[in-house]
Amino acid sequence: MFKTSFGRRMACAALALAAFAPAAFAQSYPTRPIRMIVPYPSGGPTDVLARVMAQKLGDLLGQNVLVENKPGAGAITGTDAVAKAAPDGYTIGFATIGPLAVAPSLFPNVPYDPLKDFEPLMLVARSYSMLAVHPSVPANNLQELVALVKANPNKYSFAYGGLGTTQHLSGELFSSVAGLKMLPVPYKGEGAAQVDLLGGQVHMMFTSPIVAMNNVKQGKLRGIAVTSPKRLPQLPEIPAIAETFPGFDVQAWFAMIAPAGTPEPIVKRLNESMQALLKNPEVLARIEALSAIPAGGPPSELTALMRTEIPKWRDVIRTANIKPQ
After folding, report:
1. Averaged over 295-324, what is the pLDDT?
2. What are the pLDDT digits (tens) for 229-286?
3. Is the pLDDT of residue 1 over 60?
4. For the purposes of burial, counting CB atoms within 10 Å of the CB of 219, is it exposed (0-12), middle (13-18) or buried (19 or more)?
């Protein structure tokens, strides 16, 4: 009787301790600096946003958040380093649509599973593109452009700065839904593609709305449509492709992730702190500089987005027969 009662008390105590431990851990976390892995080179726009967020996140948590750049293999190298890190809350990652939603279908033997090897922390921001054409293209709106390209298969080209980028995938998805045959023209970067678009060497490009509108206002380009589900508030005069082709939605997105198995209280603490960052003027200014829109929300929203985006881009890549070069 005594032994049975004592055993039950010990079991209850163990359960209570197990339930208390994660909460206690979260209250004391963090007790040392946190590493934020950025899978892109230092100095780029994604890195700049990550560094601003790291600094402000460190201020909120009371510990330094140290950025570690691990570029390589189309951001796969750094993203894999997050997946392989200890799930203790002291390694987090700044990721994008590329390594999380596109790479697994574009490259063979990607060493991680986006849905199994990470704990989503928060969707940071979404960014949309504008379809801009050179003034020599005799089309003033999307309907005229579609009719023109349909009547002239494989005559008109679209530029993109990098295999599997949203510029590239936007062009392939647009060709698919509109039934067009266009010539994709790859460049090593968006800057080089912009130069040739402005020079008329290529006919059109999905590009940054901020960059495009500066050229549109000067008459160097013509703004045709945006890739958002509806018109962008800052560009109400530019229609969305979805107005003609319902469901068309291409977004570049930025997200925070942690290794799978990171304790739920730590994930919750990080998410709440990161959501607070989206009210910080410096963070908002960097997001705006990327032509992006702040997102936020619980980790489940990032999970839902990934579950939608991964099969979507897998289908586009297969349909267009896109292969690594």
Report:
1. 96
2. 999 988 999 999 999 999 999 999 999 999 999 999 999 999 999 999 999 999 999 8
3. no
4. exposed
Cα-Cα-Cα-Cα dihedral sign, residues 118, 188, 152, 230: positive
Length of the chain as a residue count: 325
Domain boundary among 243, 277, 301: 243
Indicate whether 156 and 239 sit together in one domain. yes
Domain that holds residue 306: 34-126+253-320
Cα atoms in the Cβ-side hemisphere of radius 13 Å centred on 14? 6
Question: Do residues 166 and 206 share a domain?
Answer: yes
d(CA 146, CA 123): 34
Least confident of 64-68, 214-218, 256-260: 214-218
Residues 105 and 145 in one domain: no
Residue with tokens 């050229």: 215
- CATH number (domain holding residue 315): 3.40.190.150
- Torsion angle (degrees, nearest 10) of CA 138, 140, 144, 145: 70
Structure tokens at 309: 């985006």
* Phi, psi for 280 (deg, rounded to 5): -85, 125
Q: How many domains does the chain have?
A: 2
**Residue 105 has which token pair?**
């279908």
Q: Binning pLDDT at 50, 70 and 90, where does residue 5 land?
A: very low
